[in-house]
Structures are given as C-alpha cells and as structure tokens.
C-alpha cells in the first residue's frame, strides 16, 4: 500500500508543516479497477485480463505473471494461438542443441 500526505507550507515560522504519530489500525485495500480488470498488488495499475499471464510484466511488480501456472508446451499450446497475420505455429519433438 502507498500513502501520500500533501500539505501547503505557509509563510514565516508559523507556517511549517509536521507529520507525527501516524498509526494505521485497519486497512482495506480498495479496488481501483473495474470488475473485469486485474489489480496489480504493489503498483496502482489495472491490467486487462488479456494481459495477465502473457509473459510480460505489465504491472511493473510482476504480480500479473505470478500465478500463471506452468506450461512447457509438451502436450499442447497452453491456450496460445498464432496471430492471424503470422505464420502458423507447429510443435516438433527433438533433441535440444547443447554447446559443449
């Protein structure tokens, strides 16, 4: 969670600002996103569902990629599809090249 305190300093010695003895007893995180979007955990961002688990850190804290499960593409395409303007994907089985 992030908190921001904003103040305006007055003129002269009596216009100084001080913040002291702050205590947060209970804190409910308010969802700033609409019902369908993903709310990033540590940054104030909302991410469209199509951008969650897309192998790109859209939240800048990686929370949109943390709970994506594992996929090694051994059995299927894991829900991924080829873009229409791109070559069709094909899966092949073979040995992995090692340099050594």
What labels would you give this structure?
elongated; 100 residues; 2 strands; little secondary structure; single chain; two-stranded antiparallel sheet
Structure commentary:
The protein is mostly loops. It has strands spanning 38-39, 46-47. The chain has a two-stranded antiparallel sheet with strand order 1-2. A hairpin with a 6-residue loop joins strand 1 (38-39) and strand 2 (46-47). It is elongated, with a radius of gyration of 24 Å. The N and C termini lie far apart (48 Å). The model has no long low-confidence stretch (mean pLDDT 76).
Explain the layout of strands and helices:
Elements: E1 38-39, E2 46-47
Antiparallel strand pairs: 1-2
In short:
The chain has 100 residues and is low in regular secondary structure.
Number of strands: 2
Main β sheet profile? 2 strands, antiparallel
Strand order of the largest sheet: 1-2
Q: What series of H and E elements makes up the topology?
A: EE
Rounded to the nearest angstrom, the radius of gyration is 24 Å
Q: Which range does the strand content fall in?
A: under 5%
Structural class: little secondary structure
Helix content: under 10%
Number of helical segments?
A: 0
Low-pLDDT segments, ≥5 res = none
Alpha-carbon distance between the termini?
A: 48 Å
Give the overall average pLDDT: 76
Broad shape: elongated
